[in-house]
Amino acid sequence: MLNSTHITKSKMWWWVFLVSALQGCGGGEGENDQTMTQAVAQTELDSIIRNLNLAVDPIAGRTLPSINDPLPQLGKKLFFSKSLSGDLDVACASCHHPMLGGGDALSLPIGINAVQPQVMGAGRVDGDDLPDVPRNSPTVFNVALWDTSLFWDSRVESLGKESGQNGAASGISTPDSGVGVVDANAGGNLAMAQARFPVTSVEEMKDTTFETGETNTSIRDHLAARIGDVGEGAGELATNDWLSAFQTAFNSSANANTLITFDNIALAIAEYQRSMVFVNSPWQNYLDGNTSALSDDAIEGAILFFTSAAENGGGCVNCHSGSLFSDGQQHTVGFPQIGPGQGVGNDDDFGRELVTGERDDRYRYRTPSLLNVSVTAPYGHSGAYASLNDVLRHYNNPRNTVDDFFDDDELCDLAQFENVSGCTSLYPDARQNSFRALNKLDDEQDDGTSLFQNVGLNGNERNQLEAFLNALTDPCVTNRSCMLPWIADEVADNPDDQVLIATDINGVNL
Ligand code: HEC
Ligand code: HEC
């Protein structure tokens, strides 16, 4: 009986009877009814967990570095150093801070030209108050657990997508090589391959005046020479103690030309990020056998999450599957498109199509992980939705929710835009672009290629789903002392006097 397949509504009453019999309660009294409902819900969830084989250790079989290892320690210094940006004003951490969920708490990032480069979150602005980076900054937490691809459009992609490998097994394609083609310089895993690109982006780190018009290789070589204090980069940093930091990390006495290459920079940064594994959530505790780890609402929410829309669930697991809560594939879900867009004109963004050139891939984005999702707002590829509640309303009724978003000028309620003058007319094509994506979703649903099922969740069910999503957060990520090992120290992690000590707009250290 315990191996029975999915529990349907018709079987439910039988379970109610069974559970009540086991508990020796006759029913009828309110309190007993409630206990009974809870027991039924837990039994149903446990059956789902068995059927979908959810009780797995998300890091099993992986070789992961510890933050205390020498390479991640070097990587932390590099990740927080503004020396990797053309104009010495942006670090990786400027958009991916450990205390901001591994992101930047903005809808769209401000990279170069920030008025106060140390300020993060609401109040980080550049001269014209408008973000120039077209997509939301995703979390770098758990980057070691991706086996398929990185970026919203999967443009850094493992060719074989072997599970447990983080891209190490069969070659990685990148924007340097083109889709489907191995980039010989990508390095040993997806994190390493990815780390080669932010420094080449004008808006994120490179700036307009550094290595203008030069190749990605020239940009990286120049930065390595700057860090190594050799060749074209010699003397660019007034303070430079990087060589000893590299010698310690690589346990080598080689010189800067040998040791301080961009490959080694990317390796160290990748190992730092790969040490940021935060999976110890209440949900995981429940899977590990702690039956009191989840609230009643979270248990009901979990059932909705893993149940198909046809069976009155949310159908979320169609795409948010596996212990990372992502299938690693790209889908059209039609979240609003705001901001300057990704280079296709009229502030639009074609998503995965920009990588593959396939018209079918327009408006598709990689399913994000939902681990720690309560600390990674705002949501979606352009950060349009401020809350999980907004996201859940979208899944209930995409068209109405996107309509409301534009009717109510919700863009101008986002922390990033609320003080921008003329906010309502910033992106005149945004509504139309967003509806193009919704039309695409309709087309996919009509021709049967979409995994997005229309769901009918009431307010209570959405609250339950939200309780479940909140239970996917590892408490460490909200606790500064727990996160301290990943935050650069102004003295110990500052070989070039360029360390980012980030603050909020009020000057309080993050
Ligand atoms: C100006 C902000 C900014 C800076 C600086 C920046 N990033 Fe990012 N990062 C982003 C954005 C935006 C994306 C998503 C871009 C996309 O998908 O098109 C991203 C994506 C990523 C991802 C992929 C995560 C995933 O799940 O797909 C990783 C890893 C990452 N960045 C690491 C880094 C590293 C390492 C550096 C420094 C070398 C860095 N970032 C610098 C904004 C930034
Ligand atoms: C068809 C596949 C699919 C289904 C089904 C689906 N999602 Fe998503 N989900 C996505 C994609 C793709 C995105 C990114 C959309 C974007 O960036 O525009 C996303 C984004 C999200 C986000 C925002 C995460 C972030 O970091 O920005 C949350 C939260 C979320 N989904 C929860 C859910 C829940 C809850 C359900 C079930 C009610 C669900 N999803 C069903 C594919 C799916």
Automatic annotation (TrEMBL):
<dbReference type="InterPro" id="IPR009056">
    <property type="entry name" value="Cyt_c-like_dom"/>
</dbReference>
<dbReference type="Pfam" id="PF03150">
    <property type="entry name" value="CCP_MauG"/>
</dbReference>
<keyword id="KW-0732">Signal</keyword>
<keyword id="KW-0349">Heme</keyword>
<keyword id="KW-0479">Metal-binding</keyword>
<dbReference type="InterPro" id="IPR036909">
    <property type="entry name" value="Cyt_c-like_dom_sf"/>
</dbReference>
<keyword id="KW-0560">Oxidoreductase</keyword>
<dbReference type="InterPro" id="IPR051395">
    <property type="entry name" value="Cytochrome_c_Peroxidase/MauG"/>
</dbReference>
<feature type="domain" description="Cytochrome c">
    <location>
        <begin position="296"/>
        <end position="422"/>
    </location>
</feature>
<protein>
    <submittedName>
        <fullName>Cytochrome C peroxidase</fullName>
    </submittedName>
</protein>
<keyword id="KW-0575">Peroxidase</keyword>
<keyword id="KW-0408">Iron</keyword>
<dbReference type="InterPro" id="IPR004852">
    <property type="entry name" value="Di-haem_cyt_c_peroxidsae"/>
</dbReference>
<dbReference type="GO" id="GO:0004601">
    <property type="term" value="F:peroxidase activity"/>
</dbReference>
